[in-house]
Amino acid sequence: TWRDIAIPLISEDELAEKMEKAREYDNFRLQKYIFRLWHSYTEGQKKLLTVTLVRIRRMCCRYKLLAILTKWRDKAQHKYKKREEELILKHELQLLKWRSKLKCNAVAKEEFPFPEHSASEVSLGSEVPECDISLFPERVISRIFAYLTLRDIIICGQVCHSWMLMTQGSSLWNSIDFSAVKNIITDKYIVSTLQRWRLNVLRLNFRGCVLRLKTLRSVSLCRNLQELNVSDCPTLTDESMRYISEGCPGVLYLNLSNTTITNRTMRILPRYFQNLQNLSLAYCRKFTDKGLRYLNLGNGCHKLMYLDLSGCTQITDSAMEVLSAKCHYLHILDISGCVLLTDQMLEDLQRGCKQLRILKMQYCRCISKEAAKRMSSIVQQQEYNPSDPPFWFGYDYEGKPLKKQNEETPLKGDEEVILTESTHNSEEELA
């Protein structure tokens, strides 16, 4: 009785109605879930379609620009060739007229000689050409002026306006050698020249030039610089090298020989000159082994093919061990005068520098003949001399500076011995 009262009986009709409602609700939830999945799929497809449309439009614009640029380039090349041919034709016609005029003058003088004219006047009248060099094509003018030095180009630019325009060709200023005019050129002219031709300069030579810091900082304007020679520059400092390295990251050839650079510069080189191939540090005695190890920091100067360390008496085997472990492309190495290097350095080179071809070891007293003989069978060319450094090196076999008395009054017998030993090649020494 209690069960009948607590749980009332449900009729079959009511139960069927409730089951129908439950099915409808379950179908509704299933349709809602499917609709959500379909909606997210359609939204993703729409986004993909918009992205592809944008890419197609960009590609169409790019192809249109390429077609326009190719047409413009072809038209410009055609105009340039046409203009060059017209100039060459004009020059040839002028040359023919000049030759025919010379022949007519010669024939007229032979037929009607004038005794009152002197021989000098006749020769001057027949030899003076009426040909203007400014009418030559631009490439011909650049080839002619390429044989002149910087001083001659400056003088030619002061002749007249047309000659000044001829000296302003961009190809003439790809390579500038300031060392040839270091005694007459001013810092102001160097700065103005580098500012004007900063995009054309590829090679700079400041060997032996005494320059101010502002002038050396102007080198950083040459973004396309590939070769830089600042050897024997007494005013070159670490600060100026910092400015140069930050502005000219594409340098491939760098000559810092006989300068006062320190470990600060050696730390800057691998940071900016990662494509450096030729490096000369000859007679730079202010940096230490720590500075030479900096060349292998990070990406470093691992593409070095030529390295000159001649006269660096402070270099030891520990620095050369780190260097040979990273510089695998090294082809030429000069360690002449590095009196502290021993046979261990040659073993490190054999393990690390597999592509080494030329090795110079003049006046390396601590390297034995047996080690040099083993090394000569690996490299193609070798220079070896175990004798003491000559007096003009400025230091003895221990790397200590020589006294002034030894430098001023060397013995004649010692000089003769040094000269005869320095002329021996590697094969004579090993024999």
UniProtKB/TrEMBL annotation:
In which residue ranges is the amino acid composition biased (Basic and acidic residues)?
403-415
Q: Name one Pfam family in it.
A: F-box-like
Q: Which residues form the F-box domain?
A: 130-176
Q: Which InterPro entries match?
A: F-box_dom, FBXL15_LRR, Leu-rich_rpt_Cys-con_subtyp, LRR_dom_sf
| An example Gene Ontology biological process | SCF-dependent proteasomal ubiquitin-dependent protein catabolic process
Q: Which domain of life is it from?
A: Eukaryota
Spans annotated as Disordered: 403-431
Q: Lyase as a keyword? A: no
Instruction: Output a single Gene Ontology CC term carried by this record.
Output: SCF ubiquitin ligase complex
Alphabetized UniProt keyword annotations: Leucine-rich repeat, Ubl conjugation pathway
What name has this protein been given in UniProt? Answer: F-box domain-containing protein
The record lists the lineage as: Eukaryota, Metazoa, Chordata, Craniata, Vertebrata
